[in-house]
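Exercise 7.
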Amino acid sequence: LAILPIATEHKVLLLNGGGVSPKLVQPGSVLFHNRVLASYQALGVVERAKERGFKKMAMLHWNDDAGNGARDFIVPIWKKMGGTVVADEAHPVGATDFTTQIAKIKQAQPDFLAMWVWAKDIGIAVKQARDLGFTAPIMGIEYTPDAAKIAGPALEGEEYVTDYFNPEGGDKWTRDFAAAYKKKYGEDPEIYAANYYEGVYILAELIRAAKKKGGEYWNGERLKAALLEIRKFPSVYGGTVDFQEDGTSLKRVALFEVKGEKPTFRKFIEIKK
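Solution. The predicted structure, written as C-alpha cells, is:
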C-alpha cells in the first residue's frame, strides 16, 4: 500500500499476486489482485461449512487488519446463508495463551470453529483448544509446517481452504509452465511464482487491448479500463481469474484436510461472490 500513492500519481497499474490482507482492497484505485484474498478464502470455508450442514459458527481471529477484515467480510455472508455466530473472539498476533477465548467458544457450543489466523498461531490455538476439551470441527484458511509441528495430533481432521497451484493440473498451460519452471529452477512452482507469472500474461492482454484503441495505451488508467472491460482472463491455475469492481478477483481455491499431521487435498471450490 505504501507505493499506491506513487502509482496513482504516475498512472501505473498494480497487480498483487502475493498479499492476502483485506486491507489491500482499495476500490476505485489502480491496485488489483490476481491472488485470492483472505476474505474470499474465508468464503470458501463457510461454503464448505454449509455443505457439511453446520449452522452455528464460532470465530477466533487475529486482532489486526487481516483477521478483523476476514471477520467483517464473512459474518454478513454467513448470516445471509442462514447461519449464526455464537462466539467472536479476537487475539493479538503472536499470542501464546488462548485459554480465555477457548473457554468462551466452548461454552457457546458451536457446530464448528472458524479460525482467521495465520502462521504458528494456528498450531498453538488448535492444540490448546483440543487440550481444553473442545471437540467440534475446526476450519481455517492456512496450514504451515511450523503450526503442524506445534499442534501435533491435535491438528488431525482440521480442514482449511487456501489458494493452491497444482503443477500437475488438468490444463496444458498449467503443466507447460510447471515443467519449464522446474527445468530452470529444479523445483515445482508455488503460488507466488504462479501468480506473478499469470500476472505478466494479464498485463500483456491489457496492453494489447488498450493499444487497439490508440493513444497512450501504456497509461495505467487505460490499462485499468481495459481490465474492467475484459474482467475474465485464463488462469495458470486452470479455469479463469475473474476481476471484480473493487479490484479483488475470484478463482478456484482448494479444500485440504489434515491427515496423519500432513495436508491432504480434498477438492477444488469455485468461489462465487
